[in-house]
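so my prof wants the structure for this chain in the tokens format not the other one, which i didnt know existed until like an hour ago. anyway here's the sequence
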Amino acid sequence: MPYVETTIEIKAPARTIYELAKDMERYPDFMPDVETVKVLERKGNETVTRWKTLVEEAPIEWTEVDIFDDEKTRIDYRLIEGDLDKFEGAWTFTERDGMTKVVLGVDYDFGVPTLAELIGPILQKKVEENSQMMLKALKERCEGGRT
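here's what i got, hopefully its the right format
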């Protein structure tokens, strides 16, 4: 299964960035490729969310469970159902000297082996671009003072 990891440095406290990342319903406000995120259920440190995004103008939808570790400022997510066979990973937030390193890991499988063989590198590039877009949007939001 392909795995993509993207990283960005943000000049803001880890807790601030983590809290913004936890507020997934606000993602469409500042992430252009995210059309909607709807929280279907909240229970303790978990949410179930329904996502609708665009990849090259093609809609991709899925439902995932998100697990929040407030002590470690970490978010783990895992696909429950949707347009992909596998979609899971984690957000981590590590603060040092006034900067926070944010890492977004994505392990995914589109579930069509022939498609993966034909356009696997293109799909991987799109996942990388989407991950980078999400991290850049968090950076702009945090450093621009609009948290």
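also thought this was worth mentioning. The chain is about 30% helix and 50% strand.
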